[in-house]
Amino acid sequence: MTTAFSFGEAFANLTSQLSAVVFYAFDINGVAIPLVLIWLISGALVFTAYLGFINVRGFGHAISLLRSNKRSGAKGEITPFQALSTALSGTVGTGNIAGVAIAISLGGPGATFWMIVAGLLGMSTKFVECTLAVKYRQLNSDGTVSGGPMYYIKAALDKFNLPLLGSTLAMAFSVFVIFGSAGFVHVNQGFVQMKSVTGFDNAWLFGALYALLVGAVIIGGLKSIARVTSALVPLMCGIYLAASLLVMFSHYSAIPAALWLIVQSAFTPEASYGGFIGVLIQGFRRAAYSNEAGIGSSPIAHAAAQVKDPVSQGFVGLLEPFIDTVVICTITALVIILTGAYQTPGLDGVQITSGAFASVFSWFPWVLMVALLLFGFSTVISWSYYGLTGWRYLVGHNPKLTQLYKVLFCFIVSIGAVPNVMAVFDFIDSMIFLMAVPNILALYLLLPEVKADLSAYWKKQQQLR
């Protein structure tokens, strides 16, 4: 008992110190502004301006590419739609349900406006990430693909004659993504919602069943994951959006006032929410957590897409923050604001969203539970592939080591529902946001290259018309 307690205490202390470094913040008018958030948002602003607002002018082309099935001769493992579905399943999760509620409870309705702005800016970051992921991927002899930030991080620093630094940062990114892939948060939040709705309180059994389902999917590799996520993403989004629209319809007369409140509160917020800076930071923080633009996770999935031109997958990738943040997070915010659930004392996170649905129909928490479980499950299986890619970058493609990773991953999932693991949550968050440091550095270094590739791509498209 003493040893276990000592280890737990030591781990909690380590996590606390790590989190303090990763989320180091400076203070403006009493509002803490994390440096890592500035790193993400400033990158998105630079990429948007440098590429001539590609997030806006490339939106229509992105839709047309997604609808096209022309992939003859294209190398890769999965279709562009499956790559988008896998990436979306990794970002659409508890952040869209519980995270939005937290942002509004801390920053007020105005946080929604800045969340949308950050989501739109994040589309440019995704474009750059996904383009580079395909450009610098490796096609293996067995037909599989190895790709992601670790590959273009190494390539970027090699171009600047810093191969040792490139290798170090690429390996560091791989370590971060391996630890960041642990699905504790999603398993835990799914269990909490199931317990509150059904009364089921066996955390160990829940975790074991969850791990078995995850294992059944990931044992088949990326193609198996892509098949499941391409079916799950439309289903889970459909269920959640249908439920949300029903709640919004029951308050349809208040929608114009809610939209005006969002805009008004974004620029003239109440002091209790931290003023203008506090509201802006809450919105940007939630968008960063939600769509992960700049983190470097999604490019790992997009790298495997069956495309001839890397830029085309960049366009498909920019749709991700739009769907995740601009659409799903905004609808969640409207449900919470229309029902006034964020003003209910004693509720936090997913409880606020659940209370919003329950205020209209008492049985709606069941719908939310199903949506949350689907969101969480799809996120866990997508991140299993991200972690595996980092693992393979470090130890190679040895089949036995690959299976070892999958077994370890399922074991981690099985204990994710056990309570009192806040130190683990903080550790995983730290790992995920540490991924952004080398990733965005590489994006800056390779940005002129992306712009040149984009110009060549546009010229080619004009010739085909």
Q: Overview of this structure, please?
A:
The protein is an all-alpha fold and 465 residues long. 76% of the residues lie in helices and 3% in strands. The protein has helices at 2-22, 35-50, 54-57, 59-67, 80-91, 94-107, 111-135, 149-159, 163-180, 184-198, 203-218, 221-250, 255-267, 275-291, 298-302, 310-317, 319-339, 350-358, 364-395, 399-414, 422-434, 436-464, and strands at residues 25-28, 31-34, 138-139, 145-146. The strands form two sheets. The chain has a two-stranded antiparallel ribbon. Strands 3-4 form a two-stranded antiparallel sheet. Strand 3 and strand 4 (145-146) form a beta hairpin.
Q: Helix/strand/pairing class, anyone?
A: mainly alpha
**Percent of residues in β-strands:** under 5%
Largest sheet: 2 strands, antiparallel
Poorly predicted runs of 5 or more residues:
none
Which percent range fits the helix content?
over 70%
Count of helical regions: 22
Q: Which features does this protein show?
A:
single chain, 465 residues, mainly alpha, two-stranded antiparallel sheet, 4 strands, 3% strand, globular
Blueprint (SSEs and pairs):
Elements: H1 2-22, E1 25-28, E2 31-34, H2 35-50, H3 54-57, H4 59-67, H5 80-91, H6 94-107, H7 111-135, E3 138-139, E4 145-146, H8 149-159, H9 163-180, H10 184-198, H11 203-218, H12 221-250, H13 255-267, H14 275-291, H15 298-302, H16 310-317, H17 319-339, H18 350-358, H19 364-395, H20 399-414, H21 422-434, H22 436-464
Antiparallel strand pairs: 1-2, 3-4
Helix pairs in contact: 1-21, 2-7, 2-22, 4-16, 5-12, 5-17, 5-19, 6-14, 6-17, 6-18, 7-13, 7-14, 7-16, 7-17, 7-22, 8-9, 8-22, 9-19, 9-21, 10-19, 11-19, 11-20, 12-17, 12-19, 17-18, 19-20
